[in-house]
Amino acid sequence: VNAQQLLSLQKNYVMKIIGKMTIVLAITITGCTNQKIEYPVTQKCDQKDDYFGTIVEDPYRWLENDTSAETAAWVKAENEVTFRYLDKIPFRSEIKEHLTEQWNYPKVSSPFKINGRWMQYKNSGLQNQSVLYLLENYDDTEGTVLLDPNKLSDDGTVALTDIEVSNDGKTLIYSIARGGSDWNEIMFMDIDSRKGLDDHLKWIKFSGIEAYKDGIIYSRYPEPKKGDELTAMNENSMVYFHKIGTRQSEDALIYSDPSHPIRINSITTDESGEYLFLYGSEGTSGNTMAFRKEGDKIFTPIVDDFENNTYLVEVINGKFYLYTDIGAPRYRIVAVDPKNVARSAWTEIIPEDDCVLEGVSALHDKLIAFYLKDAHTLVKVFDNNGKYLYDIDNDGVGSISGFGGKKDDTLTFYSFTSYNVPSITYKYDVDNNVSTEFYRSKIKFDSENYITKQVFFDSKDGTRIPMFLTYRKDIELNGKNPTMLYGYGGFNISMTPAFAISRLPLLERGGIYAVVNLRGGGEYGEEWHKAGTKMNKQNVFDDCIAAAEYLIGNKYTSPEYLALSGGSNGGLLVGAVINQRPDLFAVALPAVGVMDMLRYHKFTIGKHWAVDYGTSEDSKEMFEYLYAYSPLHTIKENVEYPAVLVTTADHDDRVVPAHSFKYAATLQEKYHGDKPVLIRIESQAGHGAGKPTEKSINEIADVMSFMFYNMPKKK
Questions:
Q1: CA–CA separation, 22 and 304 (whole Å)
Q2: If you placed Cys at 496, which of 316, 399, 614, 667 could pair as Cys (CB 3.0 to 4.6 Å)?
């Protein structure tokens, strides 16, 4: 008897069945919920591509068309299957309700000052977007609402992405993103009257807002063809000056470079506005740098290749203080005389250290330097000549951020957080090196009940890899703890400790949250980064596999209780690793992942990732390397995969959802086991930034429920 017939029997006859039989019937129905899932039939096309003589089929190429009716129908059908599965998880609503309760506490940013105006972000608890407040001074605990992005849409899907204040302190300039897209619009508001101005700038991506003279400097792209806004390649970045009170069509072009269409161009100024600094990038690492003094027409190059990373800290005593990895893979600070920018004339201010220098703030004749030591933050203070003065104490192994301000400021703020420590904001007296607690998170979470520790293990080639583990102190490490292993491993991005409400459903239920610092990241500088790129990318997957084996071998968990999670480049990680070692995991959670390594560079900003990945068009050798690990192309038949929940969103124009669409369709086609292989496609959302609170809670509850439901202990 099938499930539908049993439900009909129960409905019509249950009152006539004795109690014992009722129990038997209920058990039978429960068993039927674990039937093999019937997935939508995804149509195939006869698409084949020739890569250096190798023919590669791409039968789901049609899913790359995100605006077609056929793709929309497929998305609808897949979501129906996914949510029908999620709806049957008995504890899903409990997780969602409890997570909502935990999320509902006031969230307050550090106060900050821009061109004489003190501001702060606040969220009362469950507001979809945080609200920008204007303060009388840094210690104004109330403030008044300056801009509430929740009023810009009915569903909270318009996010505030950046703010600036005009040089005269009168105008708020802010950028917004709609539906999670990377496309931004810049708006203007009179601060005192709260009245919006008519200025409206569009087709902006990967651009800051730089107050300059009586307007702003910003970067934009040409308007894309209608229908291609979320998929077409982003080319021909241009830098403009916009005078407040004028139309965008009147903006003055400062710089463009049509001969290098993929190059992203941007301009910043020093604090005084005396110099313009032009940056060019063709990837996620490596940049050119040039400068132009006010009144000049030509930019003078400082760095003219893409082999290294170099950025301005500030102009100090007439010299450009630069943060650079030129001659220092763990970075250093140098001073450059604008009259002689030759490298041979550079003066070293802060030399390379054993730890990685992450950045520097210039405040009141001090250089506040952030270092990474085994993926957690140390802060050291130097004078402007590079003389070491002292450390800034912190509360343990965690991450420190902040220290914003101008060169003359003697007061600033910074924050400390760790996996088991919600954010704490400190006021810092620059002259006296005194930190005073300013604000502590009001979340109902007792850090004393949890532990975060760092462990080290050897990867396949003997490289020493660090990993952070967070869990409740009272759990027994018996190999049966639900564990989420999270990794990224790319683009010089460091995975450093930070508290997140999203992990509480796991930690409170006796689970373990593990974050592994894979090669490809920036935890140990450029050498560590390069060791996980291009023809070294397999190192990243080997590191992750070794992390899973460490957790299993040391009885933190076992394959039946281990989930692998990652987003974006981390989604690629999940897809590649479970294709290589599906036996290690019970659950796989690839989010907004780069799954098609042969075609990723053909969409939006994808060409910029070639610095890390290489492309299938570079050479036969590079194609074969990519083809050998590409998650889409290495899915195996007759293999027992973990339970898989792919997550993506319809407005993701960073990693277009076609990656996840094609990957999920292929996995559903080739996997014939009993575990679920599902895709959850969010609407009116993008790569992750700016996602409304309500959507975030719903997605986290679904992901956590799916994970627990596919482990022996269903919490």
A1: 78
A2: 399
Lateral strand order in the sheet of 310-316 = 310-316, 319-324, 332-336, 347-350
CA distances from 543 to 457, 487, 539 (A): 9, 10, 6
Which of these, 374, 380, 312, lies nearest to 351 by C-alpha position?
Answer: 380
The yes-or-no answer on residue 660 being catalytic is no
Strand partners, 468: 454, 515
Q: Give counts: helices (H), strands (E), the chain.
A: 12, 39
Please enumerate in sequence order all residues whose Cβ is within 8 A of that of 8, keeping only pairs 6 or more positions apart, or say none. Answer: none
The active-site residue out of 207, 687, 696, 705 is 687
Strand partners, 119: 112, 134
DSSP string, 348-407: EEE---SSEEEEEEEETTEEEEEEEETTEEEEEEEETT--EEEEEP-SSSSEEEE----T
Tokens of 16: 């006539």
The answer to whether 679 and 669 are in contact (CB under 8 A) is no
Q: Is 696 a catalytic residue?
A: no
404 by Cβ neighbours in 10 Å (0-12 / 13-18 / 19+) ranks as middle
So what's the pLDDT on residue 362? 98
pLDDT of residue 35: 63
Residue type, 272: S
Give Cβ neighbours of residue 596 (< 8 Å, ≥ 6 apart): 630, 631, 632, 633, 658, 659, 662, 663
461 forms beta bridges with none
Looking at the predicted structure, is the pLDDT value of residue 29 above 70? no
pLDDT in tens, 305-357: 999 999 999 999 999 999 999 999 999 999 999 999 999 999 999 999 999 99
Helix (H) / strand (E) element for 77: namely: helix 69-87
The residue annotated as part of the active site, out of 110, 207, 459, 568, is 568
Residue 30 has pLDDT above 50, yes or no: no
pLDDT digits (tens, 9 = 90+) for 356-402: 999 999 999 999 999 999 999 999 999 999 999 999 987 689 999 99
